[in-house]
Amino acid sequence: MDPLGMITAMDAVNQHLKSAQPGAPVVPDGLEDRQVRPARAGLLRHNAATVLRRMAERIEPACSNPAGAG
Q1: Of 14, 33, 38, nearest in space to 24 by CA
Q2: N or C, where is the chain less crowded by C-beta within 10 Å?
Q3: What is the reported pTM?
Q4: Looking at the predicted structure, is the pLDDT value of residue 70 above 60?
């Protein structure tokens, strides 16, 4: 075993393990600058619900006679 390689590996493992701690430095990803406008978010939610409802109707259409008698 190479002692220098073991030391380097242990340093890398320690750095990796400490990166998940609450006190770890935070690297900004730039997403906090972007904000979704509430009107667009509502429109997106409405359109997504409409598409999902139409897909559900195609997969399993609503029964025309809910009592099942017929």
Answers
A1: 14
A2: N
A3: 0.37
A4: no
